[in-house]
Amino acid sequence: MRGQLVIDLPLHLDTSGDLGLTAQLVVGLRGLIDQGRLHHDDELPSTRALAASLSVARGTVVAAYDQLQAEGYLTSRPGSGTRVAPVDARRPVAGPSAPAPPAPQPDGRAIDLRPGTPDVSAIVSPPWRRAWREATNDPRPLIDARGLPSLRHEIAEHLRLMRSLVRPSDQVLVTSGAREGLALLLAALARRGERPPLVGLERPGHPALAAIPTAMGLPTIALRTDDRGLVTEELPEAGSPTSHGPDVPTPDVIVVTPSHQYPYGGSLSITRRQQLLGWAARTGAIVVEDDYDSELRYVGMPLPALATLDDPVRGRVVLLGTFSTVLTPAVATGYLSVPQRLAPLVAGHRAIFGSPVPALGQQALSNYLASGELRRHIQRMRREYRRRRELIVAAFRDAPHARLTDMSGGLQAVLRTNVPGSRITRRLAARGVLVSDLAQFWGPHAPAMDGIVFGFGSVDTPTLRHVLPIIRRACS
């Protein structure tokens, strides 16, 4: 038999009161849950154990538990005992009308459409479990700070098959994600120079990556983008007049999103790609290709990586990638693919500080990639995301006050609006829907445009159908 759970519940029943014992017990337990003294998934004592501790009949406790299960406060499954249910499972109790609850807050009760979260519901599968089981059965120490050789090999194969990039595994480094990978590269470049490198950042661009050079104390410069991505003809270059002015220095490193500009979604044309590489060759700058969401393209095939046009030995393009979007942020694993001439520099810096990614997780991910399941998973999710994208396109096709920008790929939609995005985000928050203001992607002191950004990776199709009309009305 399962041992009785030892838990002290501050419940006091008054046998002389007007309220029955069952009702008192219901009120007491409900209060402990509402006050946060009992949390979701806490296991309650068995009916027999609680009845003995309160000196009441077992039927009294059974009736109280049944009532709280009906209200959604408790849940019970054979073999698992009685537990506190999630907050959103609770139903209002019949009785005097209560004041309206406050607007949902970003604590899980709201519909959170802020961009950056994929659908992780389908990741747990037999191949996923097998990859982790095999890793735990054969744990290997991490000897090379660049990452497990098997994982670096599988990443190189993944890039060859999915991004048409042919680089050997000794030019691949395992990171704990895109931000850590960018920080690693910038730190390595800073160590070799006499001055901190000047970093060029797309505007608008990814706020999380844009925060990295600033946090490292590195100077930055904004690079203009349009609906086709980075405006390459305006890149600052010594001796060449640009919109930046004659005294603007040439950046040493620029971070770009050529396959899917963030957040607008445009792709860099072959002409602009060639202009970018020509500029890098002339100036000696390093181009960091943020390859986020590149596999999630819905119109045509995924575009080859910019790095495929680069010289594999003397090249200037560093590919920055992560598995957080195509798998789950929980793996906290990404990669850098660097030209041969930069590999010793970055590997040497990594060797000083060591790898932040546990060997066990690296082995499990290596097993998963080797099985070929990641490519099959990407294909399945691409089909599902395409269906959600079609819902969004249809919802805003004739919207009078909002214009949907390019949605050829990725997991977010950008709406250009006639009113400030901050006003729309407040309206939606009042309705329990969380989205992002487009202005936050421009950074400080930038001429931000009005609009909102919302993701569609973390919500299922029925929820998306429900929320799209709410977003459309809020934009008017």
Explained architecture:
36% of the residues lie in helices and 14% in strands. With 476 residues, it is of the alpha/beta class. The strands form four sheets. Strands 4-11-10-9-8-5-6-7 form an eight-stranded mixed β-sheet, sandwiched between helices. It is globular. Mean pLDDT is 86; it is low at 1-6 and 93-108.
Radius of gyration: 27 Å
Number of strands: 16
Termini separation: 61 Å
- pLDDT average, as an integer? 86
C-alpha geometry: globular
What strand order characterises the main sheet? 4-11-10-9-8-5-6-7
Strand content: 5-15%
Query: What letter string, H or E per element, gives the SSE order?
Result: HHHEEEHHEHEHEEEHEEEHHHEEHEEEH
Low-confidence stretches: 1-6, 93-108
Helix content: 25-40%
The largest sheet is: 8 strands, mixed
> What is the number of helical segments per DSSP (H or I, 4+ residues)?
13
Q: Name the structural class.
A: alpha/beta
